[in-house]
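Lab notes, practical 5.
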Amino acid sequence: MGYANLRELQTALTTASDLASAMQSAPTRRDADQLVDVLRQALTAASSLGAETGPTGCALHPHGAVDPLYGDPEDPLPPGYGKCLLCNDRRRRADAHPAHARPYARPHPRWRRRLSA
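Output from the prediction step:
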């Protein structure tokens, strides 16, 4: 739990540092907003370092891995997706194979054994 939060904090701070270093003398509003979003992620990660709840906020996998696409402005997660990588992976697999596209599974024949009297 602590290591995942620490790693998330380190990643957010590195990203924030990279964004700030790349800014020109007059950053655009989009650049500033992007930096604020990353700093909020860093603050959230720092706040959860000593917390009892897991980094994912997931009831099923509170101490699971955080989805690396969570909070990515360039490749955002679909609506309804959270931070939990395990749950998001399940959702991705379900979305990739809709129910109507799944092959029809034929029931196995039931073999009955005749009992001799």
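Observations recorded by the TA: Residues 2-22 form the longest helix (21 residues). DSSP finds three helices and no strands in the chain.
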